[in-house]
Design a protein that fits this description.
The complex is a heterodimer of chains A (289) and B (264). Chain A contains twelve helices and eleven strands. Chain A is α/β, with parallel strands linked by helices. In chain A, strands 1, 2, 3, 4, 8, 9, 10 and 11 form an eight-stranded mixed beta sheet that branches. Chain A has a three-stranded antiparallel beta sheet with strand order 5-7-6. In chain A, helix 2 packs parallel to helix 3, helix 3 crosses helix 4 and helix 5 runs parallel beside helix 7. Chain A starts with 5 loop residues before the first helix and ends in a 7-residue tail after the last helix. The relative contact order of chain A is 0.17. Helices cover 21% and strands 17% of the residues of chain B. Chain B has a single domain, classed as 3-Layer(aba) Sandwich (Glutaconate Coenzyme A-transferase), CATH 3.40.1080. Classes of the chains: A alpha/beta (289), B alpha/beta (264). The interface between A and B is large, with 51 and 61 residues.
Chain lengths: 289, 264
Amino acid sequence: MKRRPLADLAAAVDDGDVVALGGKTLHRAPMAFVRELARRDVSDLTLMGLANSMDVDLLCGTGQATAVHYGYVGFEALGLAPNFRRRVEADEVDAREGTCYTVATMLRGAKQGVPFLPVAGLEGSDLLDVSGEWLTETTGPFTGERTAAVRTVTPDVGVVHATEADEEGNVRYDGADLTESLVAKAADRVFVTAERIVDTETFAADPAATDVPGFLVDGVAEVPYGAHPCSSPGTYDYDADHLREYLNRSKSGAFEAYLSAYLGDGEADYRERALDGRADALAWTPEVA
Amino acid sequence: MAATDPAPATDVTVAEVMCAAIARRLASVETAFQGFASPLPTVALRMAHERDGVTHLSASGAVNGRPETAPLSTEDQRLLAGSTAQFTSPEAFDLAARGGVDVMFVGSPQFDRRGRMNGTVVGSWDDPKVKFGGGGGSGSLLPLVEEAWAWRTEHTARSLPEDVDFVTAEGNLTYLVTPLCEFERLDGELRVVSLHPGVSRTTVRERTGWDVTFADDRRTVGDDRRTVGDDRRTPRPTDEELRLLEDVDPKRVRRSGFTDLEPL
């Protein structure tokens, strides 16, 4: 039985932890877990993700993230990530920029238990100069040919949002794997938020549909709208109005006001404040809203 | 009696010109990949898949997805509708690493004369004036893909400088389309190969950060029906192309990111 309240899962994140976040850009970001971290005083976090948006941006805004391994942090068509940008420009967040591929390779190194992995590409990129602690050029031991290499970073904690989970931590999500499988297989401890908890029989009936096996998972919480204002594919769309409000407030110095308006004491507060009368409009449909 | 063919009601803007231009270039391509934040190339790829059977790999994980409407976020899982398989973006990166991606689309705040891209920083890395979000997969992939095709929704001297402040990625960038023109990289330099309808050389010169050369100037006058000053024009989309555009992109996400789109 791995089911716990969300607050208990977030309490297991310690100061200085490396936290890898599942999802990609505006989709399946573990926002409820991120909000729960923001409600706590945990600090000095290093975040990791291939391509993230509000999850990374919010923890940069609160000052809790002090370093980020990333290929991209931004809101796609909605714009740049304002708090990430502000903190990096002020040298308050250590930007460990790589590419989506090198971050994936960092996680693959952790998943495979090796200290580094060779990776193709990067020729001519200045990223090799500025991210030398994590990216380098080297030669292969057998043929001496040039290759880039990525240093393994093993996340202390991996966080994944899912459509369904059971009490044993088995996980299934609608849509394709975005980054979740890598995150769950690379991290020392894995925490899951799920839109709903279902019976284990649901997983036993179709094991091929299980995206993350429960034995890899350390704790699971049922959190409806746990990805809001990002999407949880198959359940609800991303909330463009809310995201724009967040971006506008963050850009105009009102990030703290955004937090006081929405964060509350827990996710029940958040849902009441952020989703009042809006849930139907966000419901997933085949057509893009 | 055959129903009257409705006249295409679509206003043609430069977004449609750009989409159709990309789709035509894709006709002979086997496999192309589109990442996040790429609505315009994704619509072009949807066209090219429907019309020419081009294999469309999407960072969303979709393979040849056929969503009812093209999404604004190009990681949107609706792209999986009608997809025949799932193929995640790290798998697509692996495919590129072993030479299996013919064309990859890249967008970035800046591209320079030599086709290098900057998605990282304006100013210096240590003392940034503007920190951008990062180049996504491009730093790894530009040297790996057969060709990288770039697009921008604005064409200014700031976004197309002589030299970028930071090289996030360089490599096989061979094509750039902007709201003014098409560039191809020839002899290591992005040169204008086609002007969009109504665009003059003067406008392109004024709004590009380097001393632009026009590919047509390299032709021998008389060897071709074009002469100096008689540049190739990017064709307006045909009625058939406009119908296909509306079919794959009824919400017109292809027009996002542009300012001052006008009917052409």
